[in-house]
Design goal:
single chain, alpha/beta, Rossmann fold, five-stranded mixed β-sheet, 13 helices, about 35% helix, about 20% strand, disordered N terminus
Length: about 375
């Protein structure tokens, strides 16, 4: 991992002028001779991270406000790399997480390669983007007009995932980079093909940003790399409600988060401890992203078909976290008429090789102590 010098490998400032399906195509703008030296900040963040145990590595591009809710309760278990191109927000995050040894904050953005780019500062800072807002579409849909009002143009250092994490495993990606998700993924193809198990990314169904890649392009890129769509955060609530709306179903779908996971065939290509660890990581992710059924299927396949054993990792923090999550899921299922306790106990025993802690023994179990 090259973290010893200036993080920018180019002498020109470039700005995306429209989405290109192929990596590495830019339209240059006039050269800016001033370059930011973020090398020391990057070295400090990486050094802090390398001192922590890595059970589960999460890369968060566009980390404004901090950890995503789906990761919040793994704050002391997973290893987080937060990237934010707004230096002021990055400093706020660094202060927020200064006592969290597993969270590192980087004051630059992610992109398809290493360079300096210009970005638009909008009235709502969470909408800052490498792309310009599509004013006509926003007006036509009366969509967040004040929030998308441009107020400034700044420059930012950006790095590619593959450049930043050469030879280092990444297990999960969370991207919220206001239209640049395709570009960030294009700069992380090595990671996507080797260690990444799942991706959560904001996607556009309308051209909110001029030239930004729509959902279809992002989806195709991930399909081509062995991923499949798990779900969308969209529940029927669009950009605005008219008078004749049904509860919870109205308006147009303009953007939302989408979640992809590697398909089962690819997940189970490894074996031994590597497969065991990936199954644990994937099950945790599935449970926290609305797919508890698939999490149990993955665990069952790992034990019954791939013959993995969890005996050696029962005390591991990540596995203990998963164990608690599964216990709480099974307890909640006992309240449903289609489940008998014997069914739950049988599946629990299949996965964990233990007797299901019924009645008072549930919360007396050492997993909750």
């Amino acid at each position: 991992m090259d973290i010893e010098g200036d993080i920018c490998s180019k002498d020109r400032v470039r700005r995306p002028q429209g989405h290109r399906p192929r990596p590495g195509l830019f339209v240059a703008v006039p050269t800016i001779t001033k370059r930011r030296d973020a090398g020391s900040l990057e070295r400090n963040a990486m050094t802090e991270c390398l001192q922590a145990k890595i059970d589960c590595v999460v890369v968060d591009g566009g980390a404004r406000y901090g950890l995503h809710p789906t990761w919040a309760d793994m704050r002391t278990i997973a290893h987080f790399h937060l990237f934010e191109m707004d230096v002021q927000e990055a400093e706020r995050l660094r202060t927020k997480y200064q006592n969290d040894p597993l969270i590192a904050v980087y004051p630059f953005g992610l992109y398809r390669d290493d360079t300096i780019l210009q970005y638009t500062v909008n009235e709502h800072r969470a909408l800052n983007s490498l792309f310009s807002p599509h004013d006509e579409l926003l007006k036509r849909n009366e969509y967040m007009l004040r929030a998308f009002t441009p107020i400034d143009v700044k420059e930012a250092n950006v790095r590619s995932i593959d450049s930043m994490f050469q030879g280092k495993p990444i297990h999960f990606l969370k991207l919220d980079v206001e239209g640049a998700e395709y570009d960030v993924l294009s700069g992380g193809l090595i990671a996507l093909r080797s260690s990444v198990l799942a991706v959560r990314a904001e996607v556009l169904f309308s051209p909110v940003y001029k030239g930004a890649a729509p959902f279809g392009d992002v989806h195709k890129l991930l399909l081509d790399e062995g991923f499949e769509l798990l779900n969308l955060d969209y529940t029927g609530a669009g950009n605005k409600a008219g008078r004749f709306s049904l509860p919870g179903h109205y308006g147009k779908l303009i953007s939302t988060d989408a979640v992809w996971v590697v398909n089962d065939d690819r997940l189970f290509t490894s074996n031994g401890n590597a497969l065991r660890d990936d199954v644990i990581r994937m099950a945790c992710f599935l449970i926290n992203n609305g797919a508890t059924d698939l999490a149990i299927e993955v665990l069952q396949r790992g034990v019954l078909t791939a013959n993995i054993s969890f005996d050696a990792v029962r005390k591991d923090p990540l596995f203990a976290y998963l164990h608690r999550k599964v216990l709480l899921l099974f307890k909640s299922l006992l309240d449903r008429p289609m489940w008998a306790e014997s069914d739950i106990a049988a599946v629990y025993n299949q996965i964990f090789g233990l007797e299901f802690p019924a009645l008072n023994r549930f919360y007396e179990s050492e997993i909750f102590s």
